[in-house]
Amino acid sequence: MESLLADEFVITVEDGNTFSKSGYIAHNGDSTVHVEISEMSNLKVRVRGNIAVVTGSYHEKGISKGKAYESRDRMTDVWMNIKGRWQVIASHYSIPVTPQ
Fold first, then answer.
1. Residue 85 above 80 pLDDT?
2. What is the three-state SS of 22-39?
3. CATH no. for 5-94
4. So what's the pLDDT on residue 99?
5. Domain definitions of the chain by residue range
6. pLDDT confidence band for 100 (50 / 70 / 90)
7. How far, in Å, CA of 44 to CA of 27, rounded?
8. Three-state secondary structure readout of 35-88
9. Percent of the chain having pLDDT more than 90?
10. Is residue 74 within 8 Å of 93, Cβ to Cβ?
11. How many CA atoms lie within 13 A of 65 on its CB side?
């Protein structure tokens, strides 16, 4: 993950919290979380010069602090070609609004 994330990487997660590169790596290294399913679907990639925007759906299921969880999100990743290497500079994950 270290090499995929640009030094200035920032992510906004479902509850509105943001993490820097180091914060996100630490967050993902939480030993109380066991991810059983992690999958992306419906991915669309748009490239303009040295920028690529990826949108799609994300599904994750697992155990966190002993309790089962499952999330289904919409996601956007912004990639930039930095010195010949594609890296993520920003990500945003949100819970889709369910029509009532």
1. yes
2. HHHHHHHCCCCEEEEEEE
3. 3.10.450.50
4. 67
5. 5-94
6. low
7. 26
8. EEEEEEEEEEEEEECCEEEEEEEEEEEEEECCEEEEEEEEEEEEEEEECCEEEE
9. 79
10. yes
11. 0
